[in-house]
Protein 1
Amino acid sequence: MTWQSVNLLLPRSRLQILKKLLIILVLIAVLGGLGWWYFREQALPDYGPAYREYAYVTNGKSNTVSVIDLRTLQLAKTIPVGVGPTGIAANSKKNEIYVVNTGSNNVSVIDAEMNAVVATIGVHGRPYFIDVAEDGKRAYVANSGSANVSIIDLEKRSVIGNVRVGVSPGLARVSPDGTTVVVSNRGDNTVSLLDAKLMRVRSTLPVCQQPEDIAILPDSSKTFVTCSGSGQVASIALADSNQKNDHVLALIDVGRTPVSLALKPDGGELIVCNFDSDSISIIETGHDEVGNSTLIGQHPSKGVVTLDNSRLYVTNFGSDSVAVYDIDMGRRIATMPVGSRPDGLALTPDQNYLLVLDTQAGDVTVIQKRKPRKLEPTEYSLMTMIPVGMQPNGIVVKSFMMPGKK
């Protein structure tokens, strides 16, 4: 029924129609899960007073980080940081969060137990991204404005080296074994490979046009780099004791403007978000071939895969929605509306909640995955939308037990 037809009927039965519309709205709210209090008691178990679970969100236009308490799905704190925060990462070995401030050329260190900035580390020009080694001892920051990578000793909270790389490096990502740092140089269409121990460039490889996002296999044998300017993904073999030289294995054709990569935890498949093709490409990492491509939504920007390798969630920046793709079935199974211009996203440790950054709306949409009840059309429901700061652009989740508490 259109609003025009409702207006035509109002003189005859205004009250009856308004009652029907009210009932429909209530049913939509219940079936869609908008009344998140309905699920709160069973959805958010009590882990005890020592347990903490937070999401940290960088707000690029507010110069702050919002802390969301994931036990209650409420904003817990807003932390002032540097100018123009963008990249954010958590330390898996200690309760610290690291925030890259692009406008002030530094990194803020947040103590997760206190949720306060405890140190500020200066780097070089226009940093955007930070990655932390799995042993929690070092962090790597690509400085796009100064064509180098800053290496940070996280125990000393100081820069211990600045390594010259290519032009306009966007990302620096460290391999799981901690031996190699992969750097995408957008300005000269190259990838720099750093020896992490020696803190120097091991190889510089020409690849495709405008290399950006980086994914590294769990066994550290290969890296993949999106090239947004040429609609390709570069596959690169990484040197080790058996493979003496880094080298490009393949340039894999995908969709237009590939902007991000989501690797399955088992490393078998790599999902590429093709922003201007409204599609995803799934690369079989062992063969460097596209196994499947499918339309996913308007301007897909970011993706994340569940720990059991079964589901992929993709933010559709252009259609204000999140698509759910079943990897085993090879098809999209749901599309859920979220806030305006969704981009970054993250899963909670139990995999039951998806957190979506709505960059234009300035909030975080929380979607719950659960066993559907009677009459409910889907296993997903919108639980709540949490206001944060202006232009949220990065998110990381950290869970831990507070020391000294039971």
Protein 2
Amino acid sequence: MSNAAIPITLQVFEHQTIRIGNLVHGIAFTKSLWQKLAIYHEQHQGKYYQLLYDGIKFKQYVGVLQIGTCTIEILPKIDRLLEEDTNKWQKVLLEMLDACQFIKLDTQGFGQVQLRANAILSTYFRLFLNEVQDLIKKGIPRQYAQNEGNNKFLKGQLVLPKHLRHNLHKPEQFYTRYQTFQEHHLLTQVIHEALKVLRQLYLPPQLQLLLTQIQIGFPSPPPYQWTPRDFEQLLQNPRYHAYNRLIELARLILMNFSSDIRYGQHQLLAILFDMNVLFEEYIFQQLKKTSGIPIKISRQRSIPFWQRRSIRPDIIIERNGEKIVLDTKWKILKSATPSMEDLKQMYIYCRYFKASKGVLLFPSASLELTQPRATPFLDETSHIYCQVQFINVIAKNGQLKIGIGRDIIKQI
């Protein structure tokens, strides 16, 4: 794909609405881009955003969409009443993906200089290309295939019973079992397919140069029709454990790429995360790091609830024989009063999982909300308490707060 077109990046926030003709930080949202997003909306049954007759309303998914040279970064935001700071929330999203082990950022050099348009997608591309470059430098793993048959010279292991059966009157032939080197195997095939995808997408000039250098030194296997099962096979193979990060990045690129003739020459790549799931994983990872506190943190399996429906709380905390259900909610509360639906959900969780206390955990970024005490449900047959808790996810320096697990445990 030619990189002659001028690249643009639209930075928006979850749940934001943009309409055809709107300027987003000085960049116009065009009808052509709306039409391409309408095709993707149809393909995914409206999962990621709502299609309006003259615009788009984003949902709770954050991440990045790239169509041709246009990139849309969808950022999280919970302090909606304050000035929109795309740099801050772009960095918070990258740091949250890092904390949840969905991406690995370089500890050196990741600062204000990297807070630029298209940083999210470029970070994934750079990580993938760096991993492939390291693979080439260390040596691509060799793979051999087992073969057996008649040969005019002795190589490998002589298979005596078959040799006698086939060659009793052919002294010039040997029936042997031997290995042949395979330059192209499953690992090289899926990596090559991911490199081909990057060739079709817009890349910043520095990454474009790196991609060109890598393709010169990487094997060129014949076209391969990959399946999701290929990645499971590679990740489950102990031989490839050292390459798991590379395999995961290749899977992310291939499984989120859409090539549709209706896009014309503009291919589409979407890497999107449900912000509710991302917040839950972030809190879970923070709680797991509370070393020195005698508690058990676990994820609870779903249990049957009614007919084919089941229920599953986010996190279970066990402390001194007491079980606490913690449910994360990525949404804004202007006061310490949760919705009736959230309270009913928490009551059911506590009853079914035999917990004495439920905690509804909400984020706060800039608003200082009072942490209320746990209040009992008005149920005479059980003594179940419910507590609403707010956790500030943004540090004073504007970065994502790390190490908040102890704060959560102290408050509950």
Protein 3
Amino acid sequence: MRDRGLDGLIATSPVNITYFTDYFIWIDGLMKAYMVRPGASADLSQGYALFPLDGEPALAVTGTMLAVNGVDLWVKDLRVSGNTGLDWSLPPRPLSDRMDRIYHLLKGAPDYATTTQALVGALSDRGLAAGTLGVEADGMTADRYRQLKEALPEARLLDCSNLVRLLRMVKTRDEIDRLTQAAEISEKAAMTAMEQAKPGDNVQEVIHRFRAELGARGADLDHFAFGVHGLGIATEPDFVLGDSDVEYVDWGCRFRSCYSDTGTTFAMKPLSDDMQVRFDLLRASMDAGLDAIRPGVKSSAVQAAMQEVVDEAGLSMYPHGHGVGMEVRDYPVLAPDNGLRISDDCIDVPSDLPIEEDMVLNVEAPLSLAGVGSLHLEQSVVVTASGSRPLTEQRRDGPVFPRGASEQ
């Protein structure tokens, strides 16, 4: 913020409000204006997180009934708007200190009609109502952004949407720990689900087992995608496993606001010679990409190292990679240099981003053989000062088989 001359950053999307404050409520990304006020727009109900250059952050939540979700936050300046809708006619029971704080916050809430007014109040209290502020414009409609500008006539508002995306590329130690836990949970759940499969099972049975295993470990399903006879990938396939199927699988979960994303090859019996040759080439491509990862290397160089292996073998495939974090795909994207730039009012850099220490990256190599089957490998790593290390243990030296199938 100091480098860009910003007095503060304002997050507007649910994911970046969580990033700035740790506040999360499942409905924030779903609740639209018309669901509360018939005839209103499809805009998401808008909250804000203020992260100032100096001073304490603030959070303006989208509904007073949801403020209790902020009871354990490290951010202490929690602001609500609108009528609480609560009945105050009876004295409260004895409450813990943290719940008592919420009680008095709601009972004595300032008369903010909207979260925008609550944000303006937080800015005014910090002397920032006339400051230079980075606003995540991508998290707002154009009309919302206009309303914010009108509410802050003396402020200089700059779009910082891409700046925040770039900030999120490099992970904190806490983020790496949570991403590690997400990856561990996801890996164990997927392996358990696949190893129990047998010919005649519908793929949906595998997905249901995966979902149940995630739930038992405290995580939520994000995705479980299957290849279908090498013709593409699907997340809701009505596909019965045969005794010779070999297919791409890709899965992930959400755990404490962090995502996992990985994949491998699921085979109902040992690979044919033709498939084994191709699987080995995918492994070689992955190894080339992992070997190329180190701080300072351009993202495109990692993809190029992977592509070179498969091009020399004459395979039609596109190995690549991406960051993973509070979204299933973060920057950087490990892809060829497209000549575009990542820019907003606060940042302007080439899209071919350099690798940095403490990024968490996924490297993946898929191959679809139309009408035959598909192969896949995907691994997650943390960038270190000299290269990378596995985010968690992921066995990718061969396909995953149902129990007993590898002996057929």
Protein 4
Amino acid sequence: MPAWVKAFDIALKDLKSAFRSASAWVFMFGLPLMIAGLFYLMLGSSASTGGFSLPVTKLAVVNLDRAAPRLRASARAVPGGVRADTLSELVVAILESDDLHELVRVVRVDDADAARQAVDDEQAAAALIIPPGFSRRFAEPYEQSELELYQDPTLSIGPAVVESILNQFMDGLGGIKIAIRLTLDHASQLDPRRIDRLIAEFMEGSPANEKDLSGALLDVRRPRASSAPLEQASPLLTIVSSIMGGMMIFYAFYTGAAGGESILLEEEKQTLKRLFTTPTPQAVILTGKFLAVFLTVLIQVSVLLTTSWLVFGIRWGDLQAVALAAFGMVCAAASFGVFINSIRRSTRQGGVVFGGVLTITGLLGVIRIFAIGSPHAVGLGESVSLLVPQGWAVRALLEAMEHAPLEQTALTTLGLLGWSAVFLAVGVWRFRKRYR
């Protein structure tokens, strides 16, 4: 009988043994689906229907910027046919543009106190106050321009949307001003009185050959065309999808460790020693054991991906990207299980492994998912999560879900396979040394 057939027979035997356990079914399939299901129920049916939408935020705007430097004619156009003659009017015009009409409704007010009072009276979610001299201070290379955003403390989403839009706009202005400041620092002979002209020319030329100034300062994106149905656009479904993906990865690594534990169980029952006395080479026996771990995790991930798609309506993304991410995840979980069991002396150390190592590395790996609400936390969470293989699995899966380029998902999967190669090499070496 060929060696690969013997190895497959050993793997099939372990596979049947693993799936005879009711607790294994609960652990591999029940818990991940139950946790995702709880979030699904808490978020409500709008997670599946895509009916969730952000409310339009009513924004009171006061422009106190008088006698402001005027923009050049070629830099005044704003989407929606609105024209802006000054920098402060440009801020207001972008908020009033067609691109943002589904998010923000601007109400112009003449007095700052009246705008604040409108927020206090819950007639507006926030008030934007453009102070006197805003455009003039921006025109001065070494002065700072500021906007005042007065918001209702009982609201979070609406004012946060407005703040995000303004931050992006002001960041764009800041980039322009930095460029001008560097020009002045390196060209002291430049007449400061020409700064207005320099600003206008810089803005007129950014982005290249475009007359739409807002394009340089505000990035308005629409969903890219894809085969995924419109339901995936629901923010609530996105949350459920991310949680389901995180739980799948979390428990896949537990399954890998539990599957690798079968080698230790057979060692303690003396069945492994008897198996080594048969004509089957030790390498073939260990290959069969490792293959069983891989197949167990593969079945678990395949079932969870399919079931969550059928039950929750989750669209995981392009099939090729999801297949790449799932393959990398399975390899990493299985090889990590082999590695972690190779350093265990007996099954009595299971509490340390399952309650300590796997829990800590698992939580670090999925931290990015539970930091989705904060951009700063997402960046920090991603950096921390990449210290463990679970984090790379999360990254690959999220890239597939977000329709990232296939090359990007393939590169992340390659990183996962790198982790797998290291874990498998160390695990095989230690087991062969142990049973020599």
